[in-house]
Amino acid sequence: MFTTAQAVAAGLHPDTLRARCDRGVLEPPSHGVYRYPGAPFSYADRVLAEILRLRQTAVAARATALYLWGLVRREPAEIQLTGRNRSKYRDAMVSEAKLGKDDVVRLAGVPITTVARTLLDVAALLSPQALTRAVGDAVTRGLTSEECLRHLAGGATGSLM
Nearest to residue 65, comparing CAs of 81, 50, 49, 87? Predict the structure, then answer.
């Protein structure tokens, strides 16, 4: 996938992109984002398309990150991102939050909040059972540790599972 800005920087004119879309050589999964048709288009690809649309100023977060990390089975109805500015798009919701460099990693090319940050962000939104299951799964799979979660939660004591 690539953006209009990336194509122009590589020497393509926007009219060329439109013509290639009209001929079916390219398809736009999101405004200003292009891909070659025929390749599988996963949920992670949809998320990346929205991030590219926003000029990479947002990252996958909350329920979207929870799903991409494999900590829930149900694909979220809406792509949830965190960025500098709160906004709502047809396919995505962007919440405003300050993220430190240690809060964001890449998962299969998608900028995403770390597992620990994701669990912290969704803790109040999940049932106690779902949160316990997600924390236990994340720790068991080595995606995070109780110590890391405790540190992010402000030094809480006791078991997190």
Answer: 81
Taking alpha carbons only, the member of 63, 52, 54 closest to residue 83 is 54
- Alpha carbon distance 50, 7 (integer Å): 17
Mean pLDDT of 11-29: 95
Biggest distance spanned by C-alpha atoms of the chain: 61
With 0-12 / 13-18 / 19 or more C-beta atoms within 10 angstroms meaning exposed / middle / buried, residue 23 is exposed
Q: Which tokens sit at 94? A: 């962007």
What pLDDT shows up at residue 160? Answer: 47
Read off the pLDDT band of 155 (50, 70, 90). low
32-68 as b/e, with b when 16 or more CB fall inside 10 Å? bbbbeeeeeeeebbbbbbbbbbbeeebbbbbbbbbbb
**CB 117: neighbour CB atoms within 10 A?**
26
Mean pLDDT of the 112-131 span: 94
